[in-house]
Amino acid sequence: MVESKAVLKNKYLEAVFRLPGCRPESQRFDSCGMIEQVTLNGRHTFCVPEQLDEKRVTTYGFGLCSEFIWNDLACERKSGEEFPKLGVGIFKQIEDGMRFDKWNTYEVSPFEKTYEIRGNKIIFRETPRECMGVAAEILKAVSLYNNTITVSTTIENVGTRKLELAEFQHNFTAIDGLPAGPGYRLELPFDGELENGDWDIKTLDDRGVPDKPAASMLKTEGNTLLWKSGMDQKTFHKITRGRGIRTLPEYSWKLSHEMSAASVREICHFLPDRFSLWSVEHVISTEVFCRIGLEPGERIHFARTWLFEDETTDHMEV
Fold first, then answer.
1. What's the structural domain count of the chain?
2. CB under 8 Å to 138, separation ≥6 — which residues?
3. Per-residue pLDDT at 143 exceeds 60
4. In a domain, 205, yes or no
């Protein structure tokens, strides 16, 4: 019987992992390092599922989970031919020349994945299987230290084709389950386009699909995003690319709520390629992308750290 969950725990944090093979399994997100819930000091939580309403469409994201983006690769394949999606498996194309579509259901042969627990760390490995000249050995180590969680990712190109993709962490977050709306503060010091950004704000239809343009529920104060009203039957999406990202000594964001002493901050130990904001009623997602360009034989290593705080951790050394 395949184990579906694993737990890492220390004095401050408990992190619950959905292990590879856990159902429902996403055809979008990497099942290695998928953290379903983080609890701080036994009382503050930070993670939610992509959707709470069973009638809504979903790609089965949970909490802190990542995706490898190379959607145009599928455009090279005809119906019935195979293409790879790192983190998931080998997909069978549905329609000639069609980009990978997260809302479609594909026939998939999953990559083999293993994991090993070593004290305060889980090490995940994805075994490469070449398709279209694409093959990558992926090692992902997730470790707890005090009130932090760090994900360190190493990717080696063991195929015959250059890897040209990006990885992002979706971060399905909410502080203590509080709904998206007034009271939240999302601090984004590296977003140079927050005040004049191109916000895509829409209503949601019954299936949770963006539908018609809607009035904004957002306001900004410098590089902080705040909510004027709730997100009932609404969503927003925004992407900041390249020159819109300020040059800073540290790339991080912080989410907090006035009704809770808790907060979460993600520190990205790399130069972001771009980042995206997304929200519906119950979740706020801040997604920072790392660009991956590897010739055959090359490798890349990058890491992210989440800092979980409350009134007891403000002066803690991390």
1. 1
2. 32, 86, 87, 124, 125, 126, 128, 153, 154, 155
3. yes
4. no
